Amino acid sequence: MKNIDPSKKIILDADVVIHFLRGGQIGILHTIFPNKLYMPDMVFEETFFRD
Questions:
Q1: Residue 2 pLDDT more than 80?
Q2: Of 26, 40, 43, 47, which cross-links 20 as Cys (Cβ 3.0–4.6 Å)?
């Protein structure tokens, strides 16, 4: 597995977040990706507030 430079930021998209939420594993994202994780407002709204 390739190491990710720890100084890099990881931007999450809705598909990734939804996949981990549905699998009940959202809490392990920080162990898979030890970098700082960012979720743009648009992704947050699409994930948690879409109709």
A1: no
A2: 26
3-class secondary-structure state, position 36: coil
Amino acid making up residue 8: K
Whole-angstrom distance, CA of residue 4 vs CA of residue 42: 25
- Which pTM was predicted? 0.71
Provide the token pair at 8: 């890099």
CA 43, chain centre distance (Å): 10
Is residue 34 helix, strand or coil? coil
* Residue 42 identity (one-letter amino acid): M
